[in-house]
Amino acid sequence: xxxxxxxxxxxxxxxxxxxxxxxxxxxxxxxxxxxxxxxxxxxxxxxxxxxxxxxxxxxxxxxxxxxxxxxxxxxxxxxxxxxxxxxxxxxxxxxxxxxxxxxxxxxxxxxxxxxxxxxxxxxxxxxxxxxxxxxxxxxxxxxxxxxxxxxxxxxxxxxxxxxxxxxxxxxxxxxxxxxxxxxxxxxxxxxxxxxxxxx
Amino acid sequence: xxxxxxxxxxxxxxxxxxxxxxxxxxxxxxxxxxxxxxxxxxxxxxxxxxxxxxxxxxxxxxxxxxxxxxxxxxxxxxxxxxxxxxxxxxxxxxxxxxxxxxxxxxxxxxxxxxxxxxxxxxxxxxxxxxxxxxxxxxxxxxxxxxxxxxxxxxxxxxxxxxxxxxxxxxxxxxxxxxxxxxxxxxxxxxxxxxxxxxxxxxxxxxxxxxxxxxxxxxxxxxxxxxxxxxxxxxxxxxxxxxxxxxxxxxxxxxxxxxxxxxxxxxxxxxxxxxxxxxxxxxxxxxxxxxxxxxxxxxxxxxxxxxxxxxxxxxxxxxxxxxxxxxxxxxxxxxxxxxxxxxxxxxxxxxxxxxxxxxxxxxxxxxxxxxxxxxxxxxxxxxxxxxxxxxxxxxxxxxxxxxxxxxxxxxxxxxxxxxxxxxxxxxxxxxxxxxxxxxxxxxxxxxxxxxxxxxxxxxxxxxxxxxxxxxxxxxxxxxxxxxxxxxxxxxxxxxxxxxxxxxxxxxxxxxxxxxxxxxxxxxxxxxxxxxxxxxxxxxxxxxxxxxxxxxxxxxxxxxxxxxxxxxxxxxxxxxxxxxxxxxxxxxxxxxxxxxxxxxxxxxxxxxxxxxxxxxxxxxxxxxxxx
Lengths: 199, 625
Ligand SMILES: Nc1nc2c(ncn2[C@@H]2O[C@H](COP(=O)(O)OP(=O)(O)O)[C@@H](O)[C@H]2O)c(=O)[nH]1
Ligand SMILES: [Mg+2]
Hints:
The complex is a heterodimer of chains A (199) and B (625). Chain A is of the alpha/beta class and 199 residues long. Chain A has a single domain, classed as Rossmann fold (3-Layer(aba) Sandwich). In chain A, 33% of the residues lie in helices and 23% in strands. Chain A has seven helices and seven strands; from the N terminus they run βαββαβααβαβαβα. A seven-stranded mixed β-sheet of chain A has the order 6-5-4-1-3-2-7, sandwiched between helices. The radius of gyration of chain A is 16 Å and the shape is globular. Chain B is mainly alpha-helical and 625 residues long. Chain B has three domains: 2-21 and 53-248, Up-down Bundle (Son of sevenless (SoS) protein, Chain S, domain 1), CATH 1.20.870; 263-374, Roll (Ubiquitin-like (UB roll)), CATH 3.10.20; 382-620, Son of Sevenless (SoS) protein, Chain S, domain 2 (Orthogonal Bundle), CATH 1.10.840. Chain B has helices spanning 3-16, 39-42, 109-120, 128-140, 147-159, 167-170, 174-192, 200-216, 224-246, 301-311, 314-318, 371-374, 382-385, 388-405, 408-420, 426-448, 452-471, 475-486, 488-491, 494-498, 502-514, 518-529, 539-552, 563-579, 592-602, 610-620; strands at residues 278-284, 290-296, 326-330, 336-339, 355-359, 556-557, 560-561. A five-stranded mixed β-sheet of chain B has the order 2-1-5-3-4, with helices on one face. In chain B, helix 5 (147-159) runs antiparallel to helix 7 (174-192) and helix 8 (200-216) packs antiparallel against helix 9. Chains A and B meet through strand 2 and helix 2 of A and strand 2 and helix 11 of B. The structure holds guanosine-5'-diphosphate and magnesium ion. Residues 20-21, 39, 61 of chain A line the site of magnesium ion.
């Protein structure tokens, strides 16, 4: 088991139903589901490389509602990087990110050095689009963070999202690619491939 | 390891173990002479009255056993001092004790009910014996007759279509008979209290019965008082039920004691858990990824696993090819217990630092404890800031809350669920878990304190805290602290103990004496017998006593209910009732420090891995002893 201090922690925030879990599950397990199961708090682990050695990427998928303010504060203070998700089909969902962004600023202080990615998900739903991609960009500019549109359903930009986020980390070099020797976990993962084990 | 620690360990290992484990055969010893002394006689202080009805109680201290008969209440071999002779377990021989009054004779469950009702014919003015017989019957009935069956029979009595015949019954008029049945029914409902609506089938029967009674009520004005009571009980139960189900989303999810930590909820007063309550629980994967599921407290292992698979999208894409998941409890020491699909209510049975893991069968071997359970927690400074008195009072207040949440019937159910299938004993289990938590916390804190002088200070503080808990009549905290200090890893710290002032050494010796299990916990029993309510008893001992009552005698003798056994069990439960018959009131300051202390005391970080505790101990004093 890698040391806990060695973990790189990413936290995903956003209103309920925008596709946070779908993005995470698409990235971690490569799957997508139409049905909606509300999230309370889930954390997935993946082996990545960090400063030329192996470390664990911890992705925490949170609940949409503000039911647990204490838990939210805790995950912000423990997080290294943040993904703020809205759905391009709901302007409201973009609005709802504001208090979360403000809380991150408040707890982390200097947000410019912290990797934050604003994500407009469900880009496949062109019929129901409410938020233009230029609106997202403008917001990102205001928040001094990066921006991307994704579709968990079509698997569009999902892996890129996570890679870009890690690229924003300037204090260490984190990358999804693992060079050189594979970790034990990675091997086990490959062995069990197709068996759908969350690793 | 001190015997008592083993004793508690056994309790908790039983807790964390699989449900189906067979209860270890108890080894009893020849009746020790002290069983015939009544310690109460020698005590001058105030006592918890053992029985409000005035009937002599068959509590062990006062059991009158004929010479040569084995006491079913004595402890298993390792709780006895080695010099005491051991004999084989009591086996199937029913033990007898002098009835503490006019107990009913053994009879079939149906006939017994008839005779309990016979005695109720004088309702509402009941003799002590009648009330006692009724209470015995209701508290223990699940051992010999399912509640549903009992309700059906009561209903038959009410309608006058019961097969029961006796001169008294025949000689009474219909109103008296109905009055007696209602009196019995009300006692049953009173005993169930808030959990009345929990068992669906039973509650339906109660409601049917209620409808029947309401139909009769207008014609029989004499029944009015009881009918009103019945109406209220059923109505409130119904309300509780609809409150919960009408708006399932708005129903608050209760944070479970240890297995889902929520900072913001720990200051709320504890309320009793019911099987229908929803809780959050984390389930881990072999690589320590986790999902949080929302589940009924009573959910079965297969329910939990299906929530997990659903979350992980097992079902939709790879469902068919996937081999089924298994659910495993992993302790901080890496021990694994595979949980059976039918097991229910597992959350409250997990050990302190155990976690649930879902994996494939072949991954079972690769499961390792979470890193936070293997790493040492940082030394906490709070313990050094808080005064012994505050510590003790907060412990007592919290434990009183937890103790108050335990339903009387949980004691009976906990001991007998092996035979009858599991019922809900969550609140009792949480209290046991907490007892073990406090015990480990005391050991952990002492061993995490590296500065020798501070460590001795800490011993002093714990001993002082134990003393105040004892004064508070909170014997649960008292025992837990003393046992924590008695942990082998702590008690071997010779240098630390030597520096303790003589006064504290003596006090601690006295405490060890009080918690000494020898002679069937004689010192403890004497101490508790001198206390008046409110008292928080050392719960594991009550369970042990109940277990021995149960194992030491059969429930049926030649097909007839062993009334003496039922009475003895009911007496134990009534002791608990008496301990709680008045409220424990400790000061309720609301200053910020007070709230911080309160929050601190309600959830401790502990090491429950004995090897790790010993490692720490050897680091502190390599050559002690
Ligand atoms: N069309 C479309 N639907 C999506 C996409 N991502 C998620 N969904 C759907 O949106 C709903 C909510 O997704 P979920 O990931 O549970 O949202 P969360 O509450 O933010 O975690 C589900 O029914 C998903 O199937 C997407 O990229 N495109
Ligand atoms: Mg979600």
